[in-house]
Amino acid sequence: MSDSPGFLRRGPISPALHGTLDYLLAATLIAAPLVLHFHDETAKVVMLVLGGAATVLAVGTNWSRSIVHVIPPAVHGVADIGATIALIIAPFVFGFSEHTLALVVYVAVGAGGLLATLLTRFESDLPAAAATRAVHAPSPI
What we know:
Elements: H1 15-35, H2 41-60, H3 73-93, H4 100-118, H5 128-135
């Protein structure tokens, strides 16, 4: 049984596929402002910060494509929804909507990420014993 709300458990995208897409999203968020030479520093910094957060989620979620297995999939799903909405509205909130390239990249990546998030089943695909051990493991500190 999953702790995810119903809307986070119904999609056709598997945790394994979403986990793979997470790494692609993180790489895109980190590379895009550098490769595309955004002319607005705020647009660069915001996307790089979101890329760092996406990397943490990719590496830390409790499913097969992650390395650390500490973030519950439902928390990952809610964070994805927040981050993708933030991508869509950031150009308007932070005042760089007049920079067409940054605006298009933010809205396209945000909309694509939101669609993928809404179509994902946010449940751990790890064996039950491993999933329980990973989430309830004692802190190394």
